[in-house]
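Kindly inspect both lines:
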Amino acid sequence: MSNLILVRPREEYINEIRAYRDECRAYDTHSHGDNGLYKWDDISAWVNFNHMMRNKETLPKPEYVVADQFMLVRVGEPRILGMINFRHYLKEGYLAEHGGHIGYGVRPLERRKGYAKVMLALCLKEARAIGLEKVLLCCDLDNAGSRNTILACDGKFERLAITGSEVDERYWITIDENIGFHSQPQNETVQSPEHISAPASHPQNDAMQSPGAAPSFNHLGDYYANRNEDERLTSRHGLVEFLTTMRYIEEYLTPGANIIEIGAGTGRYSRTIADMGYKVEAVELISSNIDVFRENLKPTQDINITQANALDLSMFADNTYDITLLLGPLYHLYSDADKRQAIAEALRVTKPGGVVFAAYCLSDAAIISGFKSNKFDVKEYVKHGKINPLTFNTISQPEDIFELVRKEDIDRIMAPFAAERLHYVATDLFTLWISDAVDAMDDETFALYLRYHFAVCERADMVGASPHSLDIFRKNLR
C-alpha cells in the first residue's frame, strides 16, 4: 500500500467527492472523518469550508478548532478511498471528551481492505509535523473495526466517555519517530479479532474486576463479544433466572399485546415471546449480540431488531407498548440520572396501564461471591474506594462493566415516576451459590427446586441475596 497518499480537498476532486458522499448516503446513516460532508449538497462550498478551517483567522465559527481535512487516494488515481480529519488542538467540551484529534472513515465499498490503518498512520505524520507528541482518538463502543485500527497504531485505552446516550472509548497514541502500525496487513482484508470462547457463566461472577488492572478491553462491546450471552440462560442454573422472568412476563401478556424489549441482548426473551405468537420490537446496542440474535432468528418469529441505546428511544412513539422489558441496560448505567433516563424512556413508550420489567444487578451477591472465591479481593476493593468499608455499598465505574445496587437504590431511582410497583422479585436468588448442585439435579429434583424458588422469590427477607432482581411496575393511567 505504499502508493497511498493523503491529499486535501480541491476543485479537481469535486466529482469524486460527490460520488464519495453519495455512496456514504446510500450505505450509512452518517459518515465519519469528512467534516460533515454527508450533510453538504454544495461540494464546492464544502471544499471552501475546509480551506477556511486550516487557519485560526478564517475559522467559520469561534467555537471551531483549526483542522486539516485529508482524503486517501492512490497515486495517479482520483478515486477517494477514505476521509480523515485532523484537529490540531482540543477545546474543552464535546471535542475533548468524545471527538478527539482525529476522526476517519472509509468509503463503504472499500472497507475491510486495511485502508483505515494506512490513513491513520499517514495522518499521525501530519500530527508529528506540527509538534504533537500524542493524540486522542475516540471510537464508538461497538465499533470493532475502528478499535482495531487504533490499536494497530499503538493506541492505549484510557477510559470510556459517557455523555447522555453517547458512549465512546478513548485511546491515546504517542507519536514517535517511526510512525506506523504494528503489522502491515499481509493482504488488504482486515479481520475482526477472534472471539475468545468462554463458559456460559453468570455475568455477576465477573461483575467486579481487579482494581488497578489495565482496562484495555474492559468495556461492553468486548465483554459481550467474548461471552455467549445466549447460552448463559440455557444452562440448568441459568434457566432459573430465565424461567422466573418469563413466569412474570406471562402473567401480564394479553392477546394482541404490543411488546418491546430494550436491551434485548441475543434475543432469548424476544424469541421466546415471539414463539408464543406475539410481535416483538427488539432494541439492542451491542453489534455482536445483534449478530447472534439474527443468526438464531427463525422465519416464524415476528421480531423487528433495532440497534439503539436505551437512553434514547426517540425512534419509537409515545404510549405504544403494553409490555416493556428493560432486562439489561440498567446493569451498565452508572449514575441515577442515566438510570432514570432509561426508565423514563421505557415508561414513555409504554401505554398508560402498561407494565414495565426492569432488571438490576445486586451488590451484596457480588461481595459474597468475592469472599467465597478468588474472583476479586474484597479488601482491595475497599482500599480502592469501590466498596464502602462501613456500609459495604459498592461504587461501580464503567470499567467494572456491571453497576451494582441495593433495593434502597432502586427505590430512590423510582421515586420520581408515576408508576405502581407490582412485584419486586429475586430472579435467581440462591441458585448461583449452589449452581453445581442445580446443574446436577435430576428433573424431579429440579422441578421441586423451581417450585421452592417461585414460592420464596418475592420474600423481602430473601431478595437482597440474589445476584439479579426484577422490578415490575405499572405505568399510571394519567
Notes: The longest strand covers residues 350-362. DSSP finds 16 helices and 15 strands in the chain. The domain at 229-475 is CATH 3.40.50.150 (Rossmann fold). The two ends are 63 Å apart (CA to CA).
